[in-house]
């Protein structure tokens, strides 16, 4: 069975976005950006893959992305209805009645059931979970791995990695990658 991987950026103080969903404060030095393109190019939106010249590279980690409405909204705001054209796209939303693009599936019902169905598919590639916090809380029981990209910046306030009830879930640290810029990538696997 394939895995649901929460691949997410985070400030030192634990925020995945600013109070108004800002993400432009995360520094992107060349060495770190090159690593992201090489290792997790599948998880980049299509326009970033084109800029990084990896848009013609076959997917190696993911073939599907799941995201919440607030994660999808910035693309819609600039007229992009299919932000991950190289992946199958699922947007969990109770406010979008229909998809603005045939390549994007709206999940209006139970996100856990939808993710379980995606994980049960026969594929060598995993499912990329892009965020946000409320959806992360709902999907926590289904998250198999977390790749947490810690950026060397303090946000002070913003969107946490999870919003959920107090229900501790154990994960084991399986890898740490550090960069001279102060960026750290932590790879966690769920303890079953």
CATH superfamily: Dihydrofolate Reductase, subunit A
Global outline? globular
* Mean pLDDT figure: 95
Low-pLDDT runs of 5+ residues are none
Instruction: Tell me the span between the first and last alpha carbons.
Output: 15 Å
CATH topology: Dihydrofolate Reductase, subunit A
Protein name: Deaminase
InterPro entries: DHFR-like_dom_sf, RibDG_C, Riboflavin_Biosynth_HTPR
GO molecular function: 5-amino-6-(5-phosphoribosylamino)uracil reductase activity
Structural features, described:
It comes from Jiangella anatolica. This is Deaminase. GO terms for molecular function: 5-amino-6-(5-phosphoribosylamino)uracil reductase activity. This protein has 192 residues and is of the alpha/beta class. Helices cover 22% and strands 30% of the residues. It contains 5 helices and 10 strands; from the N terminus they run ββααβαββαβαββββ. The chain has helices at 30-40, 46-51, 69-77, 111-119, 133-139, and strands at 4-11, 15-17, 62-68, 88-92, 104-107, 126-131, 145-151, 159-160, 171-178, 184-190. β3, α3 and β4 form a beta-alpha-beta unit. The two termini are 15 Å apart. The mean pLDDT is 95.
């Amino acid at each position: 069975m394939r895995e649901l991987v929460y691949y997410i950026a985070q400030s030192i103080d634990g925020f995945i976005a600013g109070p108004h969903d800002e993400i432009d404060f995360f520094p992107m030095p060349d060495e770190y950006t090159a690593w992201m393109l090489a290792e997790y190019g599948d998880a980049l939106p299509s326009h970033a893959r084109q800029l990084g010249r990896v848009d013609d590279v076959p997917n190696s980690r993911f073939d599907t992305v799941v995201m919440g409405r607030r994660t999808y909204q910035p693309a819609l705001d600039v007229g992009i209805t299919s932000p991950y054209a190289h992946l199958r796209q699922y947007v969990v939303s109770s406010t979008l009645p229909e998809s603005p693009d045939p390549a994007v599936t709206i999940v209006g019902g139970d996100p856990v059931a939808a993710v379980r169905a995606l994980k049960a598919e026969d594929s060598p590639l995993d499912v990329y979970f892009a965020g946000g916090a409320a959806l992360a809380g709902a999907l926590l029981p289904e998250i198999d791995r977390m790749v947490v990209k810690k950026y060397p910046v303090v946000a002070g306030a913003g969107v946490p990695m999870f919003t959920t009830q107090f229900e501790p879930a154990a994960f084991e640290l399986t890898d740490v990658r550090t960069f001279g810029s102060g960026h750290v990538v932590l790879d966690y696997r769920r303890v079953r």
